[in-house]
Predict the structure.
Amino acid sequence: MVFPVKLPMNPEHARVKFSLWDENLVGSAENVGEAVLNLAPFFGRTLQEKTSQTKLKPLWVRFTHPNYQGIRLGQLYVEASIVTKAFAEEHPVGEAQNEPNRLPFLPNPKRNAPPWALGSRALEAFANYRNTIFCIAAVILIAAICIPIVAVALFATTQT
């Protein structure tokens, strides 16, 4: 994410708030937790160093929720850099994994598909038996078509 920042800044405004939400299929989404990162020390160090790029030491930010005091709700790994306007214009970056994907390079996330999704872990067990399953399905389909036809023919011959 890219945010324009003008320094020096009021320390009360030098915070980033992360909110984690759970999307419900029925009803409204729920706030799972929040984390606030104070960037004032980082901005202060940037002003002192007077370099074109200053990196925030990577850190884990813990999520909390007022209704669940003392319960670990998760954490977020945060990396950040602050650059001068001239550096940003000389080295443009994309949003998320969009081009130009650099500073830092962000690989596409590896997400596990839900078990019911086609090609997911639940179906991988059957991958080695694909031909066998196809043959069994074909036999069942042919039987489902042929048995009623044969039954009707037999019933018709017994009626005459």
Observations:
- The mean pLDDT is 83.
- The beta strands are 15-22, 30-38, 53-62, 75-83.
- Helices lie at 40-49, 85-90, 121-124, 130-159.
